[in-house]
Amino acid sequence: MQTVMNQMRIFSNIALRCGPNHTFTHHLRRTLCSSQDTKQDMRDPFRDRSRVITPEQSIQYLKSTAFKETYAHHKVWQLFRRNFKGQYSPYKSRSTCIIDDYVYTSNPCPICRDQYLVLHYTNMDLLNHFINPHSGYVYENTILCLCAKQYEQLLVAITLAKDCGLLTFEVPLRTYDYHEYYKHLDHNHHNHHNHNHHHIASH
Questions:
Q1: pTM over 0.70
Q2: Of 78, 159, 174, 192, which residue has the fewest beta carbons closer than 10 angstroms?
């Protein structure tokens, strides 16, 4: 992409100097267009993400034989191994695996590598792959190894599923100081304490 930007910048400079109707300008324009068409033809079809997969298609895919043969009993992220330089894996994942509807990296994240995995709040079979069955919380991305864009979409989809009642979850236990809401409790408690103290003293 950076190369394309540099080519366009050079073309703009030449067009300004020679004029838009100059012979060399026309030749350079045809060369750039031909180069772009060649790059489009050379795109790997397995990395192309221009086709839109609907949530309904993804839901059917998770129930299909092809999905079972691909992932068996594993989670969709479980067998993924992240490539990185050095001894320790970086804490943050890449921002995205797809640019201009094309997987630009050789090791895309578990969601981006399979175009039929669509994160949507109605796709509960897929969302359950990312939720800890014991705690009910979403796994940390250090475990899932999703790109930042897909992990954000995962959190949004799970939140919408909870709001729509499609995903059950435990409400966290909250403690309240009722004296902040019911001021008369302090007054009643004080009077009750004085009454008990007076009753004991009279005996």
A1: no
A2: 174
